[in-house]
Write a structure and sequence with these properties.
about 100 residues, five-stranded antiparallel β-sheet, about 35% helix
Length: about 100
Protein backbone atom coordinates (compact mmCIF):
# COMPACT_ATOMS: atom_id res chain seq x y z
CA UNK A 1 0.00 0.00 0.00
CA UNK A 2 2.88 2.33 0.80
CA UNK A 3 4.46 1.67 -2.63
CA UNK A 4 1.14 2.46 -4.32
CA UNK A 5 0.87 5.73 -2.40
CA UNK A 6 4.43 6.72 -3.31
CA UNK A 7 3.82 5.81 -6.95
CA UNK A 8 0.64 7.92 -7.02
CA UNK A 9 2.48 10.87 -5.50
CA UNK A 10 5.26 10.55 -8.07
CA UNK A 11 2.72 10.38 -10.89
CA UNK A 12 0.87 13.48 -9.72
CA UNK A 13 4.12 15.40 -9.27
CA UNK A 14 5.50 14.25 -12.60
CA UNK A 15 2.46 15.44 -14.52
CA UNK A 16 3.71 18.93 -13.81
CA UNK A 17 7.04 18.23 -15.52
CA UNK A 18 7.92 18.46 -19.20
CA UNK A 19 7.73 15.17 -21.13
CA UNK A 20 10.89 13.29 -22.13
CA UNK A 21 12.03 13.48 -25.73
CA UNK A 22 13.17 10.34 -27.62
CA UNK A 23 14.68 11.97 -30.72
CA UNK A 24 18.07 10.33 -30.15
CA UNK A 25 16.70 6.83 -30.67
CA UNK A 26 17.41 3.71 -28.68
CA UNK A 27 21.14 3.13 -28.08
CA UNK A 28 23.11 -0.07 -28.59
CA UNK A 29 23.13 -2.24 -25.49
CA UNK A 30 19.58 -1.34 -24.49
CA UNK A 31 17.45 -3.88 -22.62
CA UNK A 32 13.79 -4.86 -22.98
CA UNK A 33 11.95 -5.70 -19.77
CA UNK A 34 8.51 -7.27 -20.04
CA UNK A 35 6.59 -7.41 -16.77
CA UNK A 36 3.23 -9.14 -16.47
CA UNK A 37 1.42 -8.17 -13.29
CA UNK A 38 -2.25 -7.60 -14.03
CA UNK A 39 -1.38 -5.71 -17.22
CA UNK A 40 1.68 -6.23 -19.39
CA UNK A 41 4.28 -3.50 -19.09
CA UNK A 42 7.28 -3.21 -21.40
CA UNK A 43 10.27 -0.96 -20.81
CA UNK A 44 13.04 -0.35 -23.33
CA UNK A 45 15.89 1.14 -21.36
CA UNK A 46 19.60 1.49 -20.79
CA UNK A 47 21.06 2.22 -17.38
CA UNK A 48 18.95 5.03 -15.92
CA UNK A 49 17.01 6.13 -19.03
CA UNK A 50 13.71 4.70 -20.27
CA UNK A 51 13.46 5.21 -24.04
CA UNK A 52 10.05 3.62 -24.62
CA UNK A 53 7.31 2.45 -22.29
CA UNK A 54 4.37 0.26 -23.34
CA UNK A 55 1.26 -0.78 -21.45
CA UNK A 56 -0.57 -3.76 -22.94
CA UNK A 57 1.41 -3.36 -26.20
CA UNK A 58 0.43 0.31 -26.59
CA UNK A 59 3.31 2.80 -26.76
CA UNK A 60 2.67 5.40 -24.08
CA UNK A 61 2.91 9.11 -24.79
CA UNK A 62 5.70 11.44 -23.64
CA UNK A 63 3.74 12.50 -20.54
CA UNK A 64 3.48 8.92 -19.29
CA UNK A 65 7.12 8.29 -20.19
CA UNK A 66 8.03 11.34 -18.09
CA UNK A 67 6.12 9.87 -15.14
CA UNK A 68 8.02 6.60 -15.43
CA UNK A 69 11.35 8.40 -15.88
CA UNK A 70 10.69 10.55 -12.82
CA UNK A 71 10.06 7.41 -10.79
CA UNK A 72 13.30 5.90 -12.08
CA UNK A 73 15.19 9.09 -11.22
CA UNK A 74 13.89 8.90 -7.65
CA UNK A 75 15.15 5.32 -7.24
CA UNK A 76 18.38 5.18 -9.30
CA UNK A 77 18.45 2.85 -12.31
CA UNK A 78 15.64 1.38 -14.37
CA UNK A 79 16.50 -2.10 -13.08
CA UNK A 80 16.22 -0.90 -9.48
CA UNK A 81 12.88 0.72 -10.34
CA UNK A 82 11.58 -2.50 -11.89
CA UNK A 83 12.82 -4.62 -8.97
CA UNK A 84 11.05 -2.25 -6.54
CA UNK A 85 7.82 -1.98 -8.54
CA UNK A 86 7.19 -5.61 -9.48
CA UNK A 87 7.15 -8.85 -7.55
CA UNK A 88 10.10 -11.23 -8.02
CA UNK A 89 10.08 -13.38 -11.19
CA UNK A 90 7.39 -11.25 -12.87
CA UNK A 91 9.72 -9.67 -15.44
CA UNK A 92 11.83 -11.10 -18.24
CA UNK A 93 14.84 -9.24 -19.61
CA UNK A 94 16.25 -9.52 -23.13
CA UNK A 95 18.65 -7.51 -25.27
CA UNK A 96 16.99 -4.90 -27.45
CA UNK A 97 17.07 -5.68 -31.17
CA UNK A 98 16.22 -2.84 -33.51
CA UNK A 99 13.24 -3.71 -35.74
CA UNK A 100 14.03 -4.33 -39.41
CA UNK A 101 12.99 -1.47 -41.66
Amino acid sequence: MKKLFVLCMVIMTSLLLVGCNNEEGIPDGAVVAVCVQGNTFQYIYKDDVVYEFYSDSVLQNDDMLAVVQSSVDAIGTVREYIDTTFQPDVCTFTDYVEPAE
